[in-house]
Structures are given as C-alpha cells and as structure tokens.
Design goal:
This protein is an alpha+beta fold and 81 residues long. The protein has two helices and five strands, in the order βαβαβββ. It is globular and about 30 Å long.
C-alpha cells in the first residue's frame, strides 16, 4: 500500500517537497514508514526525536499500525514566545 506523507514548516525545507508517497507493507507501523523516509530524506533523521506525527487529525505513537487510505503529517514542535 502507499501512504501519503505531508511535510510541514521547515520539514519542507529538509525534504525539498511538501509531500510524498511511500510504499509500505500491509500492517506496517509509523516506525516502518519513518525508516523508509529516513533513507529517502536523511536530513529528517536529526529531527526524529522531536517530530510530531499525526494520522488524519490525531497524533499517533510510532507503534501505530497504518491502514489503507491513511495520510501522515510530520511537523516540528511549535515554539511560541
């Protein structure tokens, strides 16, 4: 299956694109998806401990099992002042 991944804020700069499609096996988790993304976009690796991950409108843990039709959004933590 293919999962659409959206990149927000400076993640767009790190990847050079606003979104991508990632082929993953059925029953893949967000961890599996991230492993593929880190190969394709190695600059994202530096953000792996602080990235926020949402599937649809809800934040999900990296153990979340992906489903057909899921869209994943990755973005950095928000800072305010």
């Amino acid at each position: 299956m293919e999962i659409k991944v959206h990149f927000y804020s400076y993640f767009k700069d790190l990847t050079g694109c606003p979104e991508t499609l990632v082929p993953v096996a059925e029953q893949a988790t967000i961890n599996d998806l991230l492993a593929k993304l880190f190969l394709d976009f190695p600059k994202l690796v530096q953000m792996q401990k602080s990235m926020l991950i949402a599937v649809g409108l809800d934040y999900q843990p990296k153990t979340y099992q992906l489903n057909i039709g899921d869209e994943v959004s990755l973005f950095p933590p928000v800072q305010g002042g």
